[in-house]
Write a structure and sequence with these properties.
single chain, alpha+beta, YefM-like fold
Length: 81
């Protein structure tokens, strides 16, 4: 595994990240002392992750959703005069 000092890492960060993304992890050292290890993240595989509908079946919207709390809202804003 390759070890680079902080100055070199700052200078060549883009190239180092490209290599890490391809599986070539590396260590960043400060004054010769290893500080951090940079490795590629594992990307999700398989079907595309969909956020839409992720709570389907877990939440129920009340039938009076559009009117619930109307009296309180009107009182707060003085709309029931």
């Amino acid at each position: 595994m390759n070890t680079v000092n902080i100055h070199e890492a700052k200078t060549h960060l883009s190239k180092l990240i490209e290599k890490a993304a391809k599986g070539e992890s590396f260590i960043i050292a400060k004054a010769g002392k290893p500080m951090v290890k940079v490795v590629a993240l594992e990307a999700p595989t398989g079907k595309k992750i969909s956020r839409f509908g992720f709570m389907k079946g877990q939440i129920k919207v009340p039938k009076d959703f559009d009117t619930m709390g109307r009296k309180q809202i009107e009182e707060i804003f003085g709309l029931n005069d």
